[in-house]
Amino acid sequence: MKRITFDIETEGPFSNGMLDVSKLEVTVVGIHDSETGELTGFYKADLPKLWPILERADILVGYNSDHFDIPILNKYYAGDLTKIKSIDLLKEIKNVLGRRLKLDNLAGATLGRNKTSDGLQAVKWWEQGLYEKVRDYCLADVAITNELYEYAKKHGSLKYSDYDGVREIKLDTRLWEAPAEAAAITHTLPF
Question: Residue 37's domain spans which residues?
């Protein structure tokens, strides 16, 4: 099963101190390909090279990806990325725990290491022209997301820090890699 773990970085206007998601533009997309083990970064201009990779995926894995990453990427894609099976780790956690957790919280408690920065800093780096730094940050988040996915598949749980220490959240991962009902329609691969 070909799994693509991914994350995006964006830029856009602030509204009342918060990002206006509807006006965000992709700056970088980072992916991990389960078949090759490679991490690859794509700038906005490189998105046409990304689409065939995503179209060949059996499953897309991300963190807040169903709510944030996929809808933003769909602004650029000729088809509909929601037709590809996806596992949004944040959604899985919220379904069990009833609340959202930060990726950094899970990374620190489960993997013993934290994120290299945060998304708002990446926006500032982009504005400063530090494009490779943004790409490297994005790829580091992809690596963490991929490792959390693999940990959850192996252990059926993830760990997070709470006010009274480290806790474990049980996740039902049995169907995560079950084949999708129908293949996604592709729009960039030849028919």
Answer: 3-170
Domain annotation covers residue 177 = no
Domain count, the chain: 1
In a domain, 159, yes or no: yes
d(CA 137, CA 29): 11
Q: Is residue 76 part of a domain?
A: yes
If you count them, how many residues does the chain have? Answer: 191
Q: Is the pLDDT of residue 26 over 60?
A: yes
- pTM, to two decimals: 0.91
Is residue 190 predicted with pLDDT exceeding 60? no
State how far the Cα of 10 lies from the Cα of 27, in Å rounded to an integer.
5
88 burial level (CB within 10 Å; 0-12, 13-18, 19+): buried
Count of beta carbons in the 10 Å neighbourhood of residue 51: 20
Phi and psi of 165, rounded to 5°? 120, -165
Q: Where are the alpha helices (DSSP H) in 21-61?
A: 47-55
The packing angle between helices 131-155 and 89-97, to 10°, is 50
Could you tell me if 81 and 74 are in contact, meaning their C-beta atoms sit under 8 angstroms apart? yes
Give the N- to C-terminal CA distance of the chain in Å, as an integer: 21
Domain with residue 143: its CATH number is: 3.30.420.10
Q: Which helix (H) or strand (E) holds 84?
A: none
